[in-house]
Amino acid sequence: MEVTSLPTAAGRESRVIDWVRGWAAKRDNLRIEVDASGNVLLSRQGKPRRRGGPAPLVITAHLDHPAFVVRSIIDSTGVELEFRGGVHDPYFTNAAIEIFDAADRAHRARIQSLDAGAKPFKRITARLELPADSIQPGDVGRWRFEHEKKPVPRIEDGLLHTHACDDLAAVAAALCVLDVLREVKGCEHVGLLLTRAEEVGFIGAIAACKNKTVARNARLICLENSRSFPHDSPVGAGPIVRVGDKLSVFEPTLTNQISMLMMEHQKAAPHFRYQRKLMPGGTCEATTFSTFGYQSTCLCLPLGNYHNMIDIDGVTSGASRSPHAHVGPEFISLSDYHGLIEMLIVCATQMDAAGAPTLKGRMNDSFKDFGFVLDT
Question: For the whole model, what pTM was predicted?
Answer without folding.
Answer: 0.94
